[in-house]
């Protein structure tokens, strides 16, 4: 095994092009578990932590571009006000030690259906900035996840940043687990109200082979909410929204929970997240 | 590979390091610093917690090569010669140490907590130590130790 330590972004891209099988390592909170337990013996590790281009974030009017090495702790501390949903999701990840190392880009690279960043990235319509020596492209989050722990990066591509739209409206994220920390989600749900567009965005985690949006539920609830009057959510709308979200999932039975439980819990999470977000909108 | 890093204020070299090796392994097996414990090697127990450039991390999840030219502080680096750090003293005095396996990680995590937040609430303590497991004490004495260490810190400043 080799340990490659590029010092700049162009050098990292060149290395990845020469050695497509090299495994990128950022916080190492997924990669090192696999290496420690001999589940993975990559021919090379490509350490990205020395690359200055990846350590910052920047804002324009529409989005925040989060560099690939920005940790959960930094998202919580530096971006909590502007990206409340992503900060909520970040707070639920692992423990302080894990949040101090783990990155959103690493969550994307691992592409676990249970990754906690994914639902809100879907709900907000985020995109992944992928780059290789051939050039740069923006992959919408909905197209990024292609299967269980599989993503749509080409072998020579690296994640440079994640572009998260600044959405004017309340956001929520919830996850089900056995305790308040160190939990891989049994299932999870994120929701974002785009107030000017009168649209609700959603993301479901840990209840299908990939994280996914609940498009039918979004269409239904966006049309059913009293946006103008800011009245309470009409009777039955929350429950119907929850049902549609649950129908979009295709969960499995596993050690963390049964498919039936996941469906049930998702319907409850969806209804509650909607109620919390709507309350915030009413008070705003 | 041959690696150089600063550990507890001293420049240290490690030789013959396998590229997939963790910082924890290097500290314990190559640099003679067995304070950081190896219990799970998967980030779950916190017994390997060290500072890496001032940030509390699980040494088992840092590739040794990622620590090159960085500054590592382990539990061995907290005491001043024979004078224990106040956090260490409080753990001893509160009876927060039984088998002691979890202790080094909890000491570093507590040290980090009260450096950032000198008067943590009980909820904040639980949250800050959520990644450190103890199989002996039932945590009550650990909470006592952390509260005492925070009081001491607050009294100092
Ligand atoms: C104890 C513990 C608790 C955890 N709890 C949670 C949790 O609650 N929720 C959750 O979602 N996850 C959790 N995780 C998983 C992990 O922490 C996250 O997935 C984290 O986001 C990974 O980020 P990282 O920077 O550490 O990734 P790494 O381990 O460095 O990399 C992860 C994957 O992404 C690839 N990669 C990294 N950076 C790039 C890049 N720039 N371009 C292309 N590919 C890249 C790597 O090759 C690898 O395949 C936990 C892990 C541990 C050990
Ligand atoms: S040994 Fe590192 S967290 Fe358990
Ligand atoms: S004292 Fe034994 S594990 Fe904590």
UniProtKB/TrEMBL annotation, chain A:
Domain FAD-binding PCMH-type intervals: 1-169
Gene3D superfamilies: 3.30.465.10, CO dehydrogenase flavoprotein, C-terminal domain, Uridine Diphospho-n-acetylenolpyruvylglucosamine Reductase, domain 2
InterPro entries, sorted: CO_DH_flav_C, CO_DH_flav_C_dom_sf, Diverse_Substr_Oxidored, FAD-bd_PCMH, FAD-bd_PCMH-like_sf, FAD-bd_PCMH_sub1, FAD-bd_PCMH_sub2, Mopterin_DH_FAD-bd
PROSITE patterns xref list: FAD_PCMH
A Pfam family annotated for this UniProt entry: CO_deh_flav_C
GO molecular function, one term: oxidoreductase activity
Keywords: FAD, Flavoprotein, Oxidoreductase
Keyword Glycoprotein part of the UniProt annotation: no
Name assigned to this protein: Carbon-monoxide dehydrogenase medium subunit
Origin species: Rhizocola hellebori
Organism lineage string: Bacteria, Bacillati, Actinomycetota, Actinomycetes, Micromonosporales
TrEMBL record, chain B:
Domain 2Fe-2S ferredoxin-type: start-end pairs: 1-78
SUPFAM superfamilies: 2Fe-2S ferredoxin-like, CO dehydrogenase ISP C-domain like
Entries under PROSITE patterns matching the protein: 2FE2S_FER_1, 2FE2S_FER_2
Keywords: 2Fe-2S, Iron, Iron-sulfur, Metal-binding, Oxidoreductase
Sections of the chain in a coiled coil: none
Keyword Protein biosynthesis: no
InterPro entries assigned: 2Fe-2S-bd, 2Fe-2S-bd_dom_sf, 2Fe-2S_ferredoxin-like_sf, 2Fe-2S_ferredoxin-type, 2Fe2S_fd_BS, Beta-grasp_dom_sf, Diverse_Oxidoreductases
GO molecular function, one term: oxidoreductase activity
Record protein name field: Carbon-monoxide dehydrogenase small subunit
Protein source organism: Rhizocola hellebori
Name of the gene this protein is made from: coxS_1
């Amino acid at each position: 095994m080799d340990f490659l330590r590029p010092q700049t972004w162009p050098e990292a891209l060149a290395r990845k092009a020469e050695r497509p099988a090299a495994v990128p390592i950022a916080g190492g909170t997924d990669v090192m578990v696999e290496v420690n337990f001999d589940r993975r013996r990559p021919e090379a590790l490509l350490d990205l932590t020395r690359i200055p281009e990846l350590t910052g974030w920047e804002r324009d009017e529409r989005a925040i571009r989060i560099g690939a090495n920005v940790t959960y702790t930094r998202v919580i501390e530096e971006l909590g006000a502007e990206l409340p949903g992503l900060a909520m999701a970040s707070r639920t990840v692992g423990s302080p030690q894990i949040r101090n190392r783990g990155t959103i880009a690493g969550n994307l690279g691992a592409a676990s259906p249970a990754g906690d960043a994914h639902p809100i990235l879907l709900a907000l319509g985020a995109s992944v900035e992928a780059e290789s020596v051939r050039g740069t492209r923006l992959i919408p989050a909905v197209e990024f996840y292609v299967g269980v722990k599989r993503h749509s990066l080409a072998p020579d591509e690296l994640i440079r940043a994640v572009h998260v739209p600044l959405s004017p409206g309340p956001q929520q994220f919830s996850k089900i687990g056995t305790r308040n920390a160190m939990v891989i989600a049994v299932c999870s749900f994120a929701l974002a109200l785009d107030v000017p567009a009168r649209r609700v965005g959603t993301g479901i985690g840990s209840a299908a082979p990939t994280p996914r949006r609940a498009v039918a539920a979004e269409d239904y609830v966006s049309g059913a909410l009293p946006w103008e009057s800011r009245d309470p959510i009409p009777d039955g709308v929350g429950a119907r929204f929850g049902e549609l979200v649950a129908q979009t999932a295709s969960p499995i039975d596993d050690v963390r929970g049964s498919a039936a439980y996941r469906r049930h819990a998702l319907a409850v999470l969806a209804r509650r997240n909607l109620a919390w977000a709507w309350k915030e909108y009413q008070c705003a | 590979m041959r690696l150089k890093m600063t550990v507890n204020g001293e420049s240290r070299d490690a030789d013959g390091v396998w590229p997939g090796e963790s910082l924890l392994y290097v500290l314990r097996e190559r640099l003679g610093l067995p304070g950081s414990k190896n219990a799970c090697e998967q980030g779950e127990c916190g017994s390997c917690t060290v500072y890496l450039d001032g940030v509390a991390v699980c040494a088992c999840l840092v590739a040794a090569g990622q620590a090159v030219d960085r500054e590592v502080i382990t539990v061995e680096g907290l005491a001043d010669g024979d004078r224990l750090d106040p956090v260490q003293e409080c753990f001893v005095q509160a009876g927060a140490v039984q088998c002691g396996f979890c202790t080094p990680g909890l000491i570093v995590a507590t040290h980090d907590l009260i450096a950032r937040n000198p008067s943590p609430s009980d909820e904040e303590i639980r949250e800050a130590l959520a990644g450190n497991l103890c199989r002996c004490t039932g945590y009550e004495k650990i909470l006592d130790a952390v509260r005492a260490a925070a009081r001491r810190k607050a009294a100092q400043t």
